[in-house]
Specification:
This protein has 306 residues and is of the alpha+beta class. The chain is built from eleven helices and twelve strands. β1 and β2 form a beta hairpin. The longest helix is centred in the N-terminal third of the chain and has 14 residues. Bound molecules: ligand MTE. The site of ligand MTE has 17 residues, from loops.
Amino acid sequence: MLIRRPDDIPASEITDERLYLNRRSFIATSGLLGVAAATGALPGCLKASPSDEQASDKLTPYEDVTTYNNYYEFGTGKEDPAENAGSFRTRPWSVAVEGLVRKPAVYNLEDILRPVRPEERVYRLRCVEGWSMVIPWLGFPLASLINRVEPTSQARYVEFTTLHDPRQMPGQRRPVLDWPYTEGLRLDEALHPLTILATGLYGRPLPNQNGAPLRLVVPWKYGFKSIKGIVKLRFTDRQPATAWNKAAPAEYGFYSNVNPEVDHPRWSQAKERRIGEFLRRRTLMFNGYGDQVARMYAGMDLRRFY
Ligand code: MTE
């Protein structure tokens, strides 16, 4: 994010929904995917758009979602993750749960996924660089995992950590960030029903470049909060350090709520370019999810807690 300029966008000519719906029926008929593909209608998040502007939300083409990425462990260019993450091993995979919880353990991915039924959530993803996408994720509420591991009453935050494996992640051989990538949420944010752990998109397993096998998605926050390749959740009573906040504290705060009224020190956040579109759109407070999330920040000075 420090390297690329905002609005450095590829043109896209592929139509989105049609492609997805075709794919979807392909996936459904070929039996690769059960629940999500079978649901048929477009998911609720699209229908419950918060404004007319958002009602024109169209899905970002699969091609763009999976080739225009930020995943610095695989390089800092937008095309690097798709080019370099192909052979990344996502099995076996485990997630350590540590800190202020009653059931700390190293969980196999299969144990995490067995009791959950990934469902489809169409969310806007707004990158702090000034572009956005609309992505049909497959995922499950982070809350369901948190409730299973039983945080103690002292737990107030969750820290997330990405795998550290420079042999597999060439970007980690260079000191671009203080590896491993970490992120954090306040516990109420982590428990919010909009917050999901994604395991797929467009009815398919998550591509490596999008954060397989498990990545966070917090739709009212800038994209960098959506940490990929998660191997650890640590529950704490102190606000955790985050990779981007450590790298540039004046630019990337802990909260990172999408806020068109608080500019990035080097560019405005008032507008965004939807990937595949030419004209820029107005950025909405909390990325358009204010009705659901604003109350968590009641009384907070969002300029100070950016
Ligand atoms: N997670 C890790 N581990 N490393 C990263 O570099 N980039 C973040 C976030 N998660 C990043 C990460 C940023 S800046 C964004 S905008 C989103 O992932 C991009 O997600 P996408 O490539 O699936 O669109």
